[in-house]
Design a protein that fits this description.
single chain, 695 residues, alpha+beta, five-stranded antiparallel beta sheet, five-stranded mixed beta sheet, 59% helix, rod-shaped
Length: 695
């Protein structure tokens, strides 16, 4: 019983889920895009809910205090989020209008085609437009509101500064994340509506795209981390200052015998000081009136904490930057509250912090810019070189791109260089092919034309004596060179059919020993004329395998003709058959000139010849052995060569012993009768040996 692994089940369900998701995206593209933006905004809002009190440096229980001095923190936050989501949804509905109609349009209709092009243009432009809008609109709108609040009600600068940092940071973060996920949906629309290689719309180069996504994230994270660190420093410094002022306050208020009223109490407090810290002194009368040393007005939060101090005697403003310490004192049987308000952070500290932060962001931006530029330049170099190829640039003028990095960019450069080398190799093969085939066509055609012309001259010239033997000789020349042309054409057509999977193979059960032996006997007459001996030897008398008899004959004749070409008179050709496990081995060995070791692999390549010169001793187009290799591989076999220069060459064919079930074995004679092609019984041997026997 077959067991199904857990991983296989998971992959199956994942595939089903992804299929349903893709189908849903296709039908509801606009809904998915708007949902992505709103989900990202909600996640951002959830993070902000917990981070704002920390980043703003709210004092203890400020969120609770907000309920008594105005609307609660939760109410303010929820209202703000709802307004942002509603406005965003309305804007997205307008921007993404008709974006999901692409699945209903037909590319065959001209009107629909124009609509599809418009949708494609939107799908390219909108991600960048929304990305920029999210960052710029939120940033500038917050900045304008902050300026207005500062001017109208003189709101403190530090909280305004913090609010702007938080808004900028999370706007950038939200823009980058939503762009990343929404871009996948837009890419799916572009993929499914692909028309041609041309794209309309905003073109954003890789360098700019990297800067747009990386720099905002660096700015956002840097600002948030800086603000978080700043808040932590303020909290710790506030604790230290609180303890110092608390000790001084307790010391000054130990002896109050000479103090008669609140003014005298306020004067006593002015002796409490810490160097470099801005301090304000206040006294709360029994009636609840607050007298300050600088006539400043305290915030509602600060007043609330005076009446409800934290840890008994600690008070806060809206944020941790403003803190204080109080102590109840009794004067003339009345209770007063004496206190010291201090600013934890100074203007100098804020300025240093701002300068350092701006310098850090500029350095990071420059590093990202030059980093993205270097990557963009590497890729552009490859792209520009690739664009030269269809433009017909000369190969020799294109140099290889140096590999200067051990990463994916380096792999891309290596891949391009290999592609360029392969292109040059293909061009070389193409040129060799045209040179060889041109020579192969021209030579027999010249001989045929010369024979025809000579025959015509003999007939026209009555003074010249000629007999039937002369005419027969010329006809024989024409026939053999016609065979040679037919062989070249057949090879070219068959190679094309095989490489495009249009070549039909007729597999039947046959005795492979008889087939090879009959082919070997059929060439004896040709070998005798060249004074070459042939010997057939087999260790098996019969072996039935599934094969195409015509193809086996063609392979053997190709190898034999190749051996005859390069074997000198007096040499020998040995054909040997034996079994090796589940395979039948056919060996064709000669005592010819041999092949250089470095040329062993080359001889089976497309249109390759060991000797490709025009004045070579033997003719050939360089297709034969390549075709033989393809035909052997169609039988799920292999062909190898063993050769030693000056000793000889051996071709070894390995064919698997495979028998077709339910098929009757066909004898060699029956096969030869039934497989004759309609070519007026042209002798296959003569065709294959035609490039040897020409005049």
């Amino acid at each position: 019983m077959q067991t199904i692994s857990k991983g296989h089940v998971i992959r199956k369900y994942r595939k089903v889920i992804n299929s349903h998701i893709d189908s849903f995206i296709i039908k509801h593209s606009k809904f998915c895009i708007i949902s992505v933006y709103n989900i990202v905004n909600l996640i951002t809002a959830a993070a902000l809910y917990f981070l704002i009190p920390i980043l703003m440096g709210y004092g203890a229980n400020v969120c609770e205090i907000s309920k008594t001095v105005g609307s609660s923190y939760n109410t303010q936050f929820i209202i703000g989020c709802l307004i942002a989501i509603i406005i965003g949804t309305i804007v997205f509905e307008i921007l993404f209008k008709d974006i999901d109609n692409w699945s209903k349009l037909l590319l065959t209709k001209k009107v629909d085609l124009e609509k599809v092009k418009e949708i494609r243009k939107k799908s390219i432009n909108l991600p960048y437009q929304v990305f920029i809008y999210q960052m710029i609109i939120m940033t500038f709108s917050t900045a304008l509101v902050s300026i207005a609040v500062r001017i109208i009600i003189n709101f403190p600068m530090i909280p305004i500064f913090k609010i702007n940092i938080i808004v900028v940071s999370f706007s950038f973060f939200s823009a980058v994340v939503s762009y990343t996920f929404a871009k996948k949906i837009f890419s799916r629309i572009l993929f499914d509506t692909y028309l041609d290689s041309c794209l309309d719309g905003i073109r954003v180069v890789l360098k700019t795209k990297m800067c747009l996504q990386i720099i905002p994230m660096i700015i956002a994270t840097s600002l948030l981390m800086a603000l978080l660190a700043y808040s932590q420093v303020i909290e710790e410094k506030g604790d230290v200052l609180f303890e110092s002022y608390k000790l001084q306050l307790q010391e000054k208020l130990t002896d109050l015998n000479d103090i008669k009223d609140s003014k005298m109490l306020l004067n006593t407090l002015t002796f409490i000081k810490l160097k470099g810290i801005k301090t304000t002194y206040f006294v709360v009368s029994p009636e609840g009136n607050i007298i300050t040393s600088d006539d400043s007005v305290n915030s509602p939060t600060f007043i609330y904490t005076i009446n409800n101090p934290v840890d008994g005697n600690r008070v806060y403003g809206n944020t941790n930057e403003i803190q204080g310490v109080i102590q109840k004192v009794e004067i003339n049987d009345q209770y007063f509250v004496a206190g010291v308000k201090f600013e934890v952070v100074s203007e100098k500290t804020v300025n240093v912090f701002l300068v350092a932060l701006i310098c850090l962001l500029l350095v990071n931006a420059l590093v990202v810019y030059f980093f993205s530029k270097s990557i963009s330049n590497d890729i552009s170099q490859v792209v520009n070189s690739l664009l030269e190829i269809p433009e017909g640039a000369v190969n020799k003028s294109r140099m290889e791109i140096p590999v200067i990095s051990n990463d994916e960019i380096g792999d891309l450069v290596i891949a391009f260089n290999r592609l360029q080398q392969y292109e040059k190799k293909c061009d070389g093969i193409k040129n060799d092919f045209f040179a060889n085939v041109s020579h192969e066509f021209r030579t027999p055609l010249n001989i045929i034309l010369a024979s025809v012309q000579l025959s015509n001259n003999l007939e026209k010239n009555e003074d010249v004596y000629y007999n039937k033997n002369d005419i027969d000789k010329k006809l024989e020349i024409i026939k053999k060179n016609s065979y040679r042309l037919l062989r070249i054409i057949n090879n070219l057509i068959d190679v094309s059919k095989i490489t495009t999977s249009f070549y039909d193979i007729n597999m039947t059960n046959n005795n492979i020993v008889n087939i090879v032996e009959d082919i070997s006997l059929s060439v004896i007459g040709y070998l005798k004329e060249r004074e070459i001996n042939i010997l057939f030897d087999t260790s098996i008398e019969e072996r039935i395998i599934a094969c195409d008899v015509d193809i086996i004959e063609r392979i053997m004749l190709n190898l034999l003709s190749n051996s005859v070409k390069f074997t000198n008179p007096g040499g020998s050709i040995f054909i040997k058959m034996y079994e090796d496990g589940e395979n039948v081995i056919i060996s064709v060995k000669d005592t010819g000139i041999g092949i250089e070791p470095e040329d062993h692999k080359m001889i089976f390549e497309h249109f390759k010849q060991v000797d490709s010169s025009i004045n070579r001793k033997s003719e050939g187009s360089g297709i034969g052995l390549y075709l033989a290799k393809l035909l052997v591989e169609m039988h799920k076999g292999s062909i190898d060569v063993k050769s030693e220069l000056g000793v000889g060459t051996e071709f070894v064919i390995t064919l698997p012993i495979i028998v077709l079930d339910g098929q009757q074995n066909i004898s060699c004679l029956e096969k030869q009768i039934t497989s004759q092609k309609v070519v007026n019984s042209i002798d296959k041997t003569e065709i294959e040996f035609s490039d040897i026997y020409y005049f």
